[in-house]
Design goal:
homodimer; alpha+beta; 60s Ribosomal Protein L30, Chain: A; Phosphoribosyl-aminoimidazole Synthetase, Chain A, domain 2; 3 domains; 8 helices; 14 strands; about 30% helix; PurM-like_N_sf (chains A, B); PurM-like_C_dom (chains A, B); Hydrogenase expression/formation protein HypE (chains A, B); HypE (chains A, B)
């Protein structure tokens, strides 16, 4: 046993975060925006001894005989059940998608539950059954788990953590820092549905047509994309969850030190999502998705990759939405439908807390 | 996108749990005892499509070129800081130990944080810094993470999930179902310290001498054990956390359908732990440990394994505490210091909630 304890006392810890008015955790620190990035770069990465390199959706580890991808996500969505899904399939598909966006084929998931005492067993059972069905539908087994229960009031119903492992095929090297000028930016389908589905049920708002979560596993779509044009054709993949399409595109622009030009008119936003966002004062480009990805593809392969996506059930509405440029590195701009240009920037915190 | 949603509604879920007075989650469902087992076997395993096989500390996955172990644990310990450690090193060492008890050498950890809005950044920073130091001390990097923040009152300060991946060396096949009659049962050192450390600070009780958590990573000890007598010599390993030594031994007896005979007088219980347990009305054999393991070793190799443990800094107080027998399969009995014999059985729920 170690005689030199590693435990650090709060009184001895020196806060490296940029000066804020409060020395407390804000809701926005979990929002996937600027505050989240500050927390990761200034608190977690120094603590864990990592450099502030490009943040990939998964880490890639060498096992000695191959490469595996490893990822984790906790889910705190409220309400637990919403149109088209619940916290269970969200947790399964979300972690599969983080692996897929590293180009990995998922081979196993973990399931960790933190449960508030008194939760109805029917609720827990329905979530677990949904997770099992989602895992079976994706062909990725849940292989191990953990359950903790905290007293009444110690948690809000149910939190689910899923971690996942995938195998990275030879030749695949996908990451945000690999985007290159000339790359074609493709989104796999309609955006904004998940966030609007949550908001509609949370706020009790009826938008006429029900908007359902788009939660879906994307590893098969990614496999089809890589098969269509070879593993080197796809430079970057990201699933635009918290912070939406904007957060993904800006993070990639910054990681690769390139500019991104989006064509707003080309971005597929369903009419129901657009009107709901207009009503709620939200930008659909900043609303979370749970079954979409954005791909940065070498221009000579873009046509083949787009065709493969459209031929796949998870990418029928795929569309080219922009291009990588040498101008304004680290920044994304959008050409509006009116022909003007605007800078797109992430939120400081989050539009919608507890969206996933 | 799938046209047949996988989401299961609570109203449609049929509860397969044994009849209890309440259809709600109880604190004891997270306690690592009989209720926990019921929840896993009757709710999670059917939901996830798994058979109720032996519950290993990690799942073993085949990558195509080798075997990896995968595990997850959430930590909800209260208070966050306690003598000798905090939730951070507990989360790092605990997941390393789950991998080690599958015979795997850990190669990477994930860190998932669920944070209550308003938590002092100094507290989060001290926990993260402790995790980094613990990971560095163990030589196992934290490679990826996730942060969620929930509103004030939505969680109790801070929950930490760690998942981990390890490589399983060729020839290693360690699991609870592999215990065999004749096996020698060895514990790696003093038991009961972690649970008593938590209780002493939680209850504000002064036992004279401070009892500190035993939190420590055990993968190097396991490597030394496997090197001492070959990978086939060690049949079963388990770290006796929630539910203590009793829960581990009973679970192994049941998984392998063997009997276990413990010699209570041989079990190393520090005087401070014994007196604290006596005061609190606890059985030290049921108190959680976070830096100990119990090993079931083929008799012809027991001496070599014990010597290797005692020669290792994490196993200096290792002791033979019992033996596997053909009698009373699925049951553990203890010979008391008075020469009598008693059946040792797990708690229904838990002695100490939120101990890890």
């Amino acid at each position: 046993m170690s005689e030199t304890p590693v435990s650090v006392d709060p009184a001895d810890w020196v806060c490296p975060l940029p000066l804020r008015e409060t020395r407390r955790v804000l809701l926005g620190h979990g929002g996937g925006g600027v505050l989240s990035e500050e927390l990761i770069e200034n608190l977690f990465l120094p603590a864990f001894g990592g450099a502030a390199g490009p943040s990939r959706d998964s880490a890639v580890l060498h096992t000695g005989t191959g490469r595996i991808a490893l990822t984790t996500d906790s889910y705190v969505v409220q309400p637990l059940f919403f149109p088209g899904g619940n916290i269970g399939d969200l947790a399964v598909n979300g972690t599969i998608n983080d692996l897929a966006c590293s180009g990995a084929q998922p081979i196993g998931l973990t399931a960790g539950f933190i449960i508030e005492e008194g939760l109805e067993l029917d609720v827990l059972g329905a979530v677990a059954a949904t997770m099992g069905k989602a895992a079976a539908a994706a062909g990725v087994p849940i292989v191990t788990g953990d359950t903790k229960v905290v007293g009444k009031g110690g948690a809000d119903q149910l939190f689910v953590n899923t971690a996942g492992v995938g195998v990275v095929p030879d030749g695949v090297d996908i990451g945000p820092e690999r985007a290159r000028p000339g790359d074609v930016v493709i989104v796999s389908g309609d955006i904004g549905e998940h966030g609007v589905a949550i908001m509609s049920v949370r706020e009790g708002i009826d938008f006429g047509t029900e908007v359902r979560t788009d939660s879906a596993p994307l590893h098969r779509l990614v496999a089809a994309m890589l098969a269509a044009a070879g593993p080197a054709a796809v430079h970057t993949l990201r699933d635009p969850t918290r912070g939406g399409l904007v957060a993904s595109v800006v993070e990639i622009a910054r990681a690769a030190s390139v500019g991104v030009q989006l064509d707003e008119a080309a971005i597929p936003v369903p009419e129901t999502v657009a009107s709901a966002c207009s009503f709620l004062g939200l930008d659909p480009l900043q609303v979370a998705n749970e079954g979409k990805l954005v791909a940065f593809v070498a221009p000579e392969h873009a046509e083949a990759v787009l065709a493969a996506m459209r031929a796949h059930p998870d990418g029928t509405a795929a569309a080219v939405i922009g291009r990588v440029v040498e101008d304004h590195p680290g920044m994304a701009v959008a050409r509006t439908p009116f022909g003007t240009t605007r800078v797109v920037e992430r939120e400081l915190g989050e539009q919608l807390p507890r969206i996933c």
